Amino acid sequence: MTSKRTDTGATGVRAKGWAHSFPVSGGVHAGRRWTRRQLEFLPWTADEPETVDAVVLAVSELLTNAHIHAHSDARLILTWDGDCLHVSVHDEDPTLPRQRTPKPGETSGRGVGIVRMLADELEVRCQRHGKTVSACFRPASADRPAAERPDAERPGTDRPDAG
Q1: β-strand 3-10 against 130-137: which pairing, if any?
Q2: Are 86 and 72 a contacting pair, CB within 8 Å?
């Protein structure tokens, strides 16, 4: 397994990123733990445990799909750009995932639908050696100026709890 952390800045654009490879054997559990640890470096995660849980569940589903359907190790890349946490999983199979409608009692077929429901965006890209599935998660409070946050106090407005 390999792991890499990057932190770059250029002309007002700053991003943090982490990459790790997970083998078919035991990779999903390790991927969930690794993701949770990396997210601790981001300023919004303590205030948004539901978003963290959604990201970890999406990682679990994407790694599972790579291992079960592509029969390959998976490369997980997390990138935070100040607006969106990009969760990307690359595997060696160029076959695109498809959303299925599983019958009641079926134990598989829900992964893509779960990720699509949890993420703000979902993208699948074919590449020369496989494919990459990327999901974007936009936390409500992340690195936005206070005036742009939905829960921010606005001058001249009354708060119900003010008194």
Answers
A1: unpaired
A2: no
Tell me the two tokens of residue 81: 């750009």
Per-residue pLDDT tens over the stretch 120-148: 999 999 988 999 999 999 998 755 544 44
**What residue type is 152 in one-letter code?**
A
> Using 50, 70 and 90 to split pLDDT, how confident is the model at 20?
very high
Per-position DSSP letters for 5-22, written without gaps between them:
EEEEEETTEEEEEEEEEE
Q: Where are the beta strands (DSSP E) in 66-119?
A: 74-80, 85-91
pTM for the structure as a whole: 0.77
Enter the tokens of residue 8: 């770059």
Question: Is 140:150 a contact under the CB 8 Å cutoff?
Answer: yes
CA 39 to chain centre: 10
